[in-house]
Amino acid sequence: MKLLTAALLLLFIAMCVASTEGVKCKCSRKGPKIRFSNVRKLEIKPRYPFCVEEMIIVTLWTRVRGEQQHCLNPKRQNTVRLLKWYRVWKEKGR
Questions:
Q1: Tens digits of per-residue pLDDT, 60-76?
Q2: What is the domain-level CATH number for residue 64?
Q3: CA angle 45, 47, 21 (to 5 degrees)
Q4: I need a labelling partner for 51 at 20 to 30 A (CA). Which of 4, 5, 31, 81 fits?
Q5: What's the pTM value of the predicted model, to 2 decimals?
Q6: Number of domains in the chain
Q7: Secondary structure (DSSP) of 9-64
């Protein structure tokens, strides 16, 4: 009986760890400097308790590499300019 209880407890702990694995901070390494014309999609995810700062994920498209996702540092001046540009571009309905 004790073995069954220990196995169920271990299974429960493994399920809890697996469920939190999907919500970890994705931006452990920041992406490269990007061209605004290559931007396909821009996502701003809020700051989670386990992340130091908010996540800005940009999807780029190039002929050579195809579609790629990168994380951007929200404190860099280039990222702030990209956010302003993207909002204006989106408002124009493009």
A1: 887 777 888 888 888 88
A2: 2.40.50.40
A3: 80
A4: 81
A5: 0.59
A6: 1
A7: HHHHHHHHHHHHHTTS-S-SS------GGGEEEEEEEPPPTT-SS-EEEEEEEETT
